[in-house]
Design goal:
Number of strands: 6
Strand order of the largest sheet: 1-2-3-4-6-5
Structural class: alpha+beta
Largest sheet: 6 strands, mixed
Bound molecules: coenzyme A
Order of helices and strands: HHEEEHEHEE
CATH topology: Aminopeptidase
Number of domains: 1
Radius of gyration: 15 Å
CATH class: Alpha Beta
Shape: globular
């Protein structure tokens, strides 16, 4: 992900609950602990998906993964997650998601993430609990 990707990243993110503003994405681009990748269409160069997070010592956290609505269910998020897990080689990875987000939960479970905690009413607009998931790779 580079600065020029941000308009399309924001566009994809805007259709999700808990969308970020541009400043949070810019922080991702400048933070030396962060990782961020995008997927673009070979045919049209359209930005189809992105993932971002950070690594500190032997732990990583995935902050966001999102796929453009028209491109969901084509294995793109799985491809991004594979790429991140392969390239980071980090033993412990955390993430959190809205309790109602069964698409994301199913995705993470296919990668062997398991639920390890609950943050009550963590999200707003609408208020919702956060499920914390962890993948222990080694
Ligand atoms: C969650 C999300 C990233 C999945 O992206 P995707 O590219 O469609 O996912 P994939 O095609 O790689 O799907 C992999 C598996 O995840 C699960 N899954 C994905 N979308 C699903 C859905 N809508 N309902 C149920 N399970 C789903 C399935 O197990 C799927 O495997 P299958 O297609 O063989 O059944 C996408 O729905 C999205 O961008 N949602 C909005 C943003 C979001 O909620 N991000 C997560 C925040 S924590």
């Amino acid at each position: 992900m580079i600065q020029l990707d941000l308009p399309e990243v924001l566009q994809i993110d805007s259709s999700n609950l808990s969308a970020w503003g541009i400043s949070l994405f810019k922080q991702q681009l400048t933070n030396k602990h962060s990782f961020h990748f995008v997927v673009r269409s070979r045919q049209t160069n359209e930005l189809l998906a992105f993932i971002c997070g950070h690594v500190i010592a032997d732990e990583a956290e995935i902050h966001k993964i999102a796929v453009a609505p028209d491109w969901q269910r084509h294995g793109i998020a799985s491809h991004l997650l594979h790429h991140v897990l392969e390239s980071l080689q980090i033993p412990t990875i955390f993430l959190e998601l809205r309790a109602s987000n069964s698409a994301a939960r199913n995705l993470y479970e296919t990668f062997n993430f398991s639920s390890c905690g609950l943050r009550k009413k963590y999200y707003s607009s609408p208020p919702e609990d956060a499920i914390i998931m962890r993948l222990q790779q080694h």
